[in-house]
Amino acid sequence: xxxxxxxxxxxxxxxxxxxxxxxxxxxxxxxxxxxxxxxxxxxxxxxxxxxxxxxxxxxxxxxxxxxxxxxxxxxxxxxxxxxxxxxxxxxxxxxxxxxxxxxxxxxxxxxxxxxxxxxxxxxxxxxxxxxxxxxxxxxxxxxxxxxxxxxxxxxxxxxxxxxxxxxxxxxxxxxx
Length: 176
Prior knowledge:
Layout: H1 13-21, H2 27-34, H3 49-61, H4 86-107, H5 116-126, H6 133-136, H7 141-155, H8 160-169
Helix pairs in contact: 3-4, 4-5, 4-8
């Protein structure tokens, strides 16, 4: 088993460490999860920017965003090497932030959703998040428990946990 880590540092270091440093996954499982990408060494170790971007693109192809939200794309930086899972994690976290923001915007300030159908659709998407690799493979138990509690609170109409998570984890530009 290999602990995932990021070699490059940037403005979203804490987010990337959360996504890639908290879980364990062997190279074969990482390759199986993300498909085959070029730019990796034979042992499944470091991935160049092209390979990490390809991993990101594979993940985004399987997910949908709220209306009028677009994928940022993975910014390739020369000389940056990442472990398998960084592109996938960035895509999953971008997806999660988009749907959290959609839910908070649709819910509004009151105890009842301002736009019930839109808020319900967003909450349905957020219920899928615990099944994504960002949680199953790359997050520790504390992160999974915190998300479950935040989701439970959102289901009862309390947007504060979701707002706080957006403020902490969704405002910085991700690596790549």
